[in-house]
Design goal:
The chain is mainly beta. 4% of the residues lie in helices and 40% in strands. The structure holds beta-L-arabinofuranose. The record marks 158 as: Important for catalytic activity, responsible for pKa modulation of the active site Glu and correct orientation of both the proton donor and substrate.
Length: 312
Protein backbone atom coordinates (compact mmCIF):
# COMPACT_ATOMS: atom_id res chain seq x y z
CA UNK A 1 0.00 0.00 0.00
CA UNK A 2 2.90 2.43 -0.14
CA UNK A 3 2.26 5.40 -2.45
CA UNK A 4 5.16 4.51 -4.76
CA UNK A 5 3.84 1.00 -5.50
CA UNK A 6 0.32 2.41 -5.99
CA UNK A 7 1.83 4.83 -8.54
CA UNK A 8 3.76 2.04 -10.31
CA UNK A 9 0.63 -0.18 -10.47
CA UNK A 10 -1.45 2.73 -11.80
CA UNK A 11 1.09 3.35 -14.55
CA UNK A 12 1.15 -0.37 -15.36
CA UNK A 13 -2.66 -0.65 -15.46
CA UNK A 14 -2.99 2.47 -17.57
CA UNK A 15 -0.33 1.37 -19.99
CA UNK A 16 -1.91 -2.07 -20.29
CA UNK A 17 -5.27 -0.50 -21.04
CA UNK A 18 -5.32 -0.36 -24.83
CA UNK A 19 -2.14 1.67 -25.00
CA UNK A 20 0.52 -1.02 -25.20
CA UNK A 21 -1.61 -3.87 -26.43
CA UNK A 22 -1.91 -3.28 -30.15
CA UNK A 23 -2.83 -5.26 -32.10
CA UNK A 24 -5.43 -6.55 -29.66
CA UNK A 25 -6.40 -9.79 -31.45
CA UNK A 26 -3.39 -11.99 -31.99
CA UNK A 27 -4.64 -15.49 -32.81
CA UNK A 28 -5.75 -14.68 -36.39
CA UNK A 29 -5.97 -11.77 -38.84
CA UNK A 30 -8.93 -9.51 -38.09
CA UNK A 31 -10.14 -6.28 -39.72
CA UNK A 32 -13.06 -3.82 -39.85
CA UNK A 33 -13.82 -4.00 -36.11
CA UNK A 34 -17.35 -3.18 -35.06
CA UNK A 35 -17.06 -2.83 -31.29
CA UNK A 36 -20.17 -2.84 -29.09
CA UNK A 37 -20.79 -2.75 -25.35
CA UNK A 38 -23.28 -5.41 -24.27
CA UNK A 39 -23.68 -5.68 -20.50
CA UNK A 40 -20.30 -5.24 -18.85
CA UNK A 41 -18.24 -6.54 -21.78
CA UNK A 42 -16.94 -5.16 -25.07
CA UNK A 43 -17.69 -7.35 -28.06
CA UNK A 44 -15.83 -7.03 -31.35
CA UNK A 45 -17.42 -8.19 -34.57
CA UNK A 46 -14.58 -8.00 -37.12
CA UNK A 47 -13.93 -9.35 -40.58
CA UNK A 48 -11.66 -12.40 -40.62
CA UNK A 49 -8.86 -12.11 -43.18
CA UNK A 50 -7.33 -15.34 -44.41
CA UNK A 51 -4.83 -15.83 -47.23
CA UNK A 52 -6.18 -16.78 -50.64
CA UNK A 53 -4.57 -19.71 -52.40
CA UNK A 54 -5.09 -21.61 -55.66
CA UNK A 55 -8.79 -22.62 -55.76
CA UNK A 56 -9.65 -20.57 -52.69
CA UNK A 57 -10.43 -16.90 -53.21
CA UNK A 58 -8.50 -14.50 -55.42
CA UNK A 59 -4.77 -14.37 -54.75
CA UNK A 60 -3.65 -10.85 -53.82
CA UNK A 61 -7.16 -9.76 -52.83
CA UNK A 62 -9.34 -9.82 -49.69
CA UNK A 63 -10.26 -13.38 -48.71
CA UNK A 64 -12.88 -13.92 -46.00
CA UNK A 65 -15.04 -17.00 -45.48
CA UNK A 66 -16.52 -16.55 -41.99
CA UNK A 67 -16.90 -14.33 -38.94
CA UNK A 68 -15.73 -14.78 -35.37
CA UNK A 69 -16.82 -12.73 -32.36
CA UNK A 70 -14.47 -11.67 -29.55
CA UNK A 71 -15.18 -10.18 -26.13
CA UNK A 72 -13.34 -8.67 -23.21
CA UNK A 73 -14.13 -7.13 -19.85
CA UNK A 74 -10.89 -5.15 -19.65
CA UNK A 75 -9.61 -4.51 -23.21
CA UNK A 76 -6.60 -6.66 -22.46
CA UNK A 77 -7.82 -10.25 -22.24
CA UNK A 78 -9.85 -11.14 -25.34
CA UNK A 79 -11.96 -14.28 -25.66
CA UNK A 80 -12.52 -15.74 -29.14
CA UNK A 81 -16.07 -17.13 -29.09
CA UNK A 82 -15.44 -18.92 -32.39
CA UNK A 83 -17.17 -18.86 -35.75
CA UNK A 84 -20.66 -17.36 -35.88
CA UNK A 85 -21.38 -17.30 -39.64
CA UNK A 86 -19.81 -19.17 -42.57
CA UNK A 87 -20.19 -18.42 -46.27
CA UNK A 88 -21.23 -22.05 -46.91
CA UNK A 89 -24.13 -21.86 -44.43
CA UNK A 90 -26.07 -18.81 -45.58
CA UNK A 91 -28.76 -19.55 -48.19
CA UNK A 92 -28.26 -16.38 -50.24
CA UNK A 93 -24.44 -16.22 -50.22
CA UNK A 94 -22.24 -17.52 -53.03
CA UNK A 95 -20.33 -20.22 -51.06
CA UNK A 96 -17.15 -19.72 -53.11
CA UNK A 97 -16.98 -15.97 -52.97
CA UNK A 98 -14.77 -15.48 -49.89
CA UNK A 99 -16.35 -12.06 -49.57
CA UNK A 100 -17.67 -11.92 -46.00
CA UNK A 101 -16.60 -8.29 -45.61
CA UNK A 102 -17.05 -5.76 -42.78
CA UNK A 103 -20.01 -6.59 -40.47
CA UNK A 104 -21.85 -4.88 -37.60
CA UNK A 105 -24.04 -6.06 -34.72
CA UNK A 106 -26.62 -4.33 -32.55
CA UNK A 107 -29.03 -5.28 -29.77
CA UNK A 108 -32.74 -4.54 -29.81
CA UNK A 109 -35.27 -5.85 -27.28
CA UNK A 110 -32.94 -8.63 -26.12
CA UNK A 111 -32.13 -9.89 -29.65
CA UNK A 112 -28.79 -9.42 -31.38
CA UNK A 113 -28.87 -8.50 -35.06
CA UNK A 114 -25.68 -9.24 -37.00
CA UNK A 115 -25.45 -7.42 -40.37
CA UNK A 116 -22.96 -8.68 -42.94
CA UNK A 117 -22.21 -8.06 -46.63
CA UNK A 118 -21.34 -10.72 -49.16
CA UNK A 119 -21.86 -11.57 -52.81
CA UNK A 120 -25.13 -13.37 -53.52
CA UNK A 121 -25.63 -16.61 -55.40
CA UNK A 122 -27.69 -16.86 -58.59
CA UNK A 123 -30.96 -17.55 -56.73
CA UNK A 124 -30.86 -13.90 -55.68
CA UNK A 125 -29.36 -12.15 -58.72
CA UNK A 126 -26.92 -12.64 -61.59
CA UNK A 127 -25.35 -9.34 -60.62
CA UNK A 128 -22.09 -9.89 -58.74
CA UNK A 129 -22.36 -6.77 -56.54
CA UNK A 130 -22.63 -7.09 -52.77
CA UNK A 131 -25.87 -7.48 -50.81
CA UNK A 132 -26.30 -7.16 -47.05
CA UNK A 133 -27.90 -9.85 -44.89
CA UNK A 134 -28.91 -10.21 -41.24
CA UNK A 135 -28.51 -13.05 -38.72
CA UNK A 136 -30.27 -13.09 -35.35
CA UNK A 137 -29.28 -14.46 -31.96
CA UNK A 138 -30.39 -14.38 -28.32
CA UNK A 139 -26.80 -13.78 -27.19
CA UNK A 140 -24.02 -11.58 -28.57
CA UNK A 141 -21.71 -14.56 -29.02
CA UNK A 142 -24.35 -16.57 -30.90
CA UNK A 143 -25.52 -18.97 -32.17
CA UNK A 144 -26.81 -16.73 -35.00
CA UNK A 145 -29.49 -17.80 -37.46
CA UNK A 146 -29.13 -16.08 -40.84
CA UNK A 147 -32.17 -14.84 -42.77
CA UNK A 148 -32.59 -16.71 -46.05
CA UNK A 149 -32.55 -13.56 -48.21
CA UNK A 150 -30.54 -10.33 -48.05
CA UNK A 151 -32.19 -6.98 -47.17
CA UNK A 152 -34.39 -5.84 -50.06
CA UNK A 153 -33.33 -2.57 -51.69
CA UNK A 154 -29.77 -2.56 -50.37
CA UNK A 155 -26.70 -3.11 -52.58
CA UNK A 156 -23.29 -2.40 -51.09
CA UNK A 157 -20.86 -3.14 -48.27
CA UNK A 158 -19.96 -2.02 -44.74
CA UNK A 159 -23.34 -2.12 -42.95
CA UNK A 160 -23.66 -0.07 -39.77
CA UNK A 161 -26.77 0.23 -37.60
CA UNK A 162 -27.57 3.06 -35.21
CA UNK A 163 -30.57 3.09 -32.84
CA UNK A 164 -31.67 6.52 -31.64
CA UNK A 165 -33.12 7.35 -28.19
CA UNK A 166 -36.66 7.07 -29.58
CA UNK A 167 -35.99 3.46 -30.65
CA UNK A 168 -35.81 4.26 -34.37
CA UNK A 169 -33.09 2.21 -36.09
CA UNK A 170 -31.12 3.39 -39.11
CA UNK A 171 -29.03 1.34 -41.53
CA UNK A 172 -25.95 2.93 -43.14
CA UNK A 173 -23.80 1.29 -45.79
CA UNK A 174 -21.44 2.20 -48.60
CA UNK A 175 -20.81 1.75 -52.27
CA UNK A 176 -18.42 4.55 -53.21
CA UNK A 177 -20.67 6.95 -51.29
CA UNK A 178 -22.44 6.48 -47.98
CA UNK A 179 -26.12 5.55 -48.00
CA UNK A 180 -28.71 5.58 -45.21
CA UNK A 181 -32.31 4.54 -44.58
CA UNK A 182 -34.66 3.93 -41.67
CA UNK A 183 -35.17 0.32 -40.61
CA UNK A 184 -38.53 -1.17 -39.69
CA UNK A 185 -39.09 -2.36 -36.11
CA UNK A 186 -38.26 -5.91 -37.24
CA UNK A 187 -34.70 -4.68 -38.08
CA UNK A 188 -34.87 -6.68 -41.33
CA UNK A 189 -36.49 -4.31 -43.83
CA UNK A 190 -36.02 -0.72 -44.95
CA UNK A 191 -38.71 1.69 -43.82
CA UNK A 192 -37.82 4.70 -45.99
CA UNK A 193 -36.32 5.76 -49.27
CA UNK A 194 -32.57 5.27 -49.52
CA UNK A 195 -30.70 8.54 -49.01
CA UNK A 196 -27.17 9.25 -50.30
CA UNK A 197 -25.32 11.30 -47.68
CA UNK A 198 -23.99 13.82 -50.15
CA UNK A 199 -22.82 16.53 -47.79
CA UNK A 200 -19.39 14.91 -47.23
CA UNK A 201 -16.17 15.79 -49.08
CA UNK A 202 -17.01 15.14 -52.71
CA UNK A 203 -13.74 13.73 -54.04
CA UNK A 204 -12.45 10.24 -53.25
CA UNK A 205 -13.94 6.98 -52.06
CA UNK A 206 -15.88 7.04 -48.78
CA UNK A 207 -16.92 3.81 -47.06
CA UNK A 208 -17.18 2.08 -43.67
CA UNK A 209 -19.73 4.43 -42.02
CA UNK A 210 -20.08 4.34 -38.24
CA UNK A 211 -22.71 6.57 -36.61
CA UNK A 212 -23.07 7.39 -32.92
CA UNK A 213 -24.68 10.10 -30.81
CA UNK A 214 -23.14 12.10 -27.97
CA UNK A 215 -24.76 15.03 -26.15
CA UNK A 216 -27.32 15.52 -28.92
CA UNK A 217 -24.73 15.54 -31.73
CA UNK A 218 -24.94 12.78 -34.36
CA UNK A 219 -21.48 11.81 -35.57
CA UNK A 220 -21.04 10.17 -38.97
CA UNK A 221 -17.51 8.79 -39.05
CA UNK A 222 -16.02 7.11 -42.13
CA UNK A 223 -12.78 6.19 -43.93
CA UNK A 224 -12.07 8.46 -46.91
CA UNK A 225 -9.34 8.32 -49.52
CA UNK A 226 -8.30 11.97 -49.56
CA UNK A 227 -4.79 11.34 -50.92
CA UNK A 228 -3.31 7.83 -51.14
CA UNK A 229 -4.81 5.58 -48.45
CA UNK A 230 -7.87 5.79 -46.23
CA UNK A 231 -7.97 8.21 -43.34
CA UNK A 232 -10.74 8.39 -40.74
CA UNK A 233 -12.89 11.52 -40.93
CA UNK A 234 -16.09 12.72 -39.32
CA UNK A 235 -19.07 14.94 -39.95
CA UNK A 236 -21.82 16.02 -37.56
CA UNK A 237 -25.53 16.73 -37.66
CA UNK A 238 -28.55 17.23 -35.41
CA UNK A 239 -30.35 14.44 -37.29
CA UNK A 240 -29.28 10.81 -37.95
CA UNK A 241 -30.06 11.26 -41.65
CA UNK A 242 -28.25 14.59 -41.94
CA UNK A 243 -27.51 16.94 -43.52
CA UNK A 244 -24.02 16.38 -42.11
CA UNK A 245 -21.28 18.97 -41.87
CA UNK A 246 -17.68 17.83 -42.36
CA UNK A 247 -15.69 18.46 -39.16
CA UNK A 248 -12.25 16.92 -39.48
CA UNK A 249 -9.87 13.99 -39.40
CA UNK A 250 -9.85 11.41 -36.58
CA UNK A 251 -6.86 9.41 -37.81
CA UNK A 252 -4.41 10.28 -40.59
CA UNK A 253 -3.54 8.00 -43.49
CA UNK A 254 -1.39 5.01 -42.67
CA UNK A 255 2.28 6.09 -42.87
CA UNK A 256 3.22 2.54 -43.91
CA UNK A 257 0.68 2.16 -46.69
CA UNK A 258 -2.12 -0.11 -45.36
CA UNK A 259 -4.68 1.04 -47.92
CA UNK A 260 -7.81 0.43 -45.84
CA UNK A 261 -8.78 1.57 -42.41
CA UNK A 262 -12.17 0.76 -40.91
CA UNK A 263 -13.30 1.63 -37.45
CA UNK A 264 -15.93 1.95 -34.74
CA UNK A 265 -16.23 4.26 -31.74
CA UNK A 266 -17.70 3.28 -28.37
CA UNK A 267 -17.81 4.45 -24.77
CA UNK A 268 -16.87 1.81 -22.19
CA UNK A 269 -16.68 2.55 -18.46
CA UNK A 270 -16.55 6.35 -18.99
CA UNK A 271 -13.79 6.22 -21.60
CA UNK A 272 -14.27 6.56 -25.36
CA UNK A 273 -12.32 4.23 -27.66
CA UNK A 274 -11.52 4.06 -31.34
CA UNK A 275 -11.24 0.55 -32.80
CA UNK A 276 -9.53 0.35 -36.20
CA UNK A 277 -7.13 -1.89 -38.12
CA UNK A 278 -3.63 -1.98 -39.51
CA UNK A 279 -1.51 -4.67 -41.16
CA UNK A 280 0.78 -5.08 -38.11
CA UNK A 281 1.41 -8.79 -38.65
CA UNK A 282 1.63 -8.59 -42.45
CA UNK A 283 3.76 -5.59 -43.38
CA UNK A 284 4.12 -6.69 -47.03
CA UNK A 285 0.46 -7.48 -47.70
CA UNK A 286 -2.20 -5.02 -46.60
CA UNK A 287 -5.14 -7.41 -46.91
CA UNK A 288 -4.12 -9.43 -43.86
CA UNK A 289 -4.95 -6.99 -41.11
CA UNK A 290 -5.14 -6.81 -37.32
CA UNK A 291 -7.58 -5.00 -35.07
CA UNK A 292 -6.28 -2.20 -32.85
CA UNK A 293 -7.76 0.10 -30.21
CA UNK A 294 -6.81 3.47 -28.77
CA UNK A 295 -8.49 5.98 -26.50
CA UNK A 296 -10.44 8.80 -28.13
CA UNK A 297 -11.03 12.23 -26.63
CA UNK A 298 -13.55 15.00 -27.29
CA UNK A 299 -13.01 18.73 -26.92
CA UNK A 300 -15.53 20.77 -24.89
CA UNK A 301 -17.30 21.83 -28.11
CA UNK A 302 -17.86 18.21 -29.16
CA UNK A 303 -15.12 18.09 -31.77
CA UNK A 304 -12.93 14.97 -31.78
CA UNK A 305 -9.21 15.09 -31.05
CA UNK A 306 -7.03 13.35 -33.60
CA UNK A 307 -5.92 9.85 -32.55
CA UNK A 308 -2.30 8.90 -33.07
CA UNK A 309 -1.99 5.11 -33.41
CA UNK A 310 0.03 3.61 -30.57
CA UNK A 311 2.88 1.33 -31.47
CA UNK A 312 3.15 -2.19 -30.19
O1 LIG B 1 -12.45 -5.69 -45.39
C1 LIG B 1 -12.89 -5.50 -46.71
C2 LIG B 1 -13.13 -4.06 -46.98
O2 LIG B 1 -11.96 -3.30 -46.75
C3 LIG B 1 -14.15 -3.41 -46.07
O3 LIG B 1 -15.45 -3.73 -46.38
C4 LIG B 1 -13.78 -1.99 -46.24
O4 LIG B 1 -14.36 -1.13 -45.30
C5 LIG B 1 -12.28 -2.06 -46.15
O5 LIG B 1 -11.83 -2.09 -44.83
Amino acid sequence: NNPFSVFIWSVFLLSSHAFAQNPIIRNQFTADPSARVFGDRIYIFPSHDILAEEGKGRIGWFCMEDYHVFSSENLTDWMDHGTIIQQTKVDWVNPDSYSMWAPDCIEKNGKYYFYFPSTPNKTITEDKGFCIGVAISDKPEGPYVPESKPIKGVRGIDPNVFIDHDGQAYLYWSQGHIYAARLKDNMLELDSEVKILEDLPTKGLKEGPFVFERHGIYYLTYPHVAEKTERLEYAISDNPLGPFKFKGVIMDESPTGCWTNHHSIIQFKNQWYLFYHHNDYSPDFDKARSVRADTLHFNADGTIQKVKPTLR
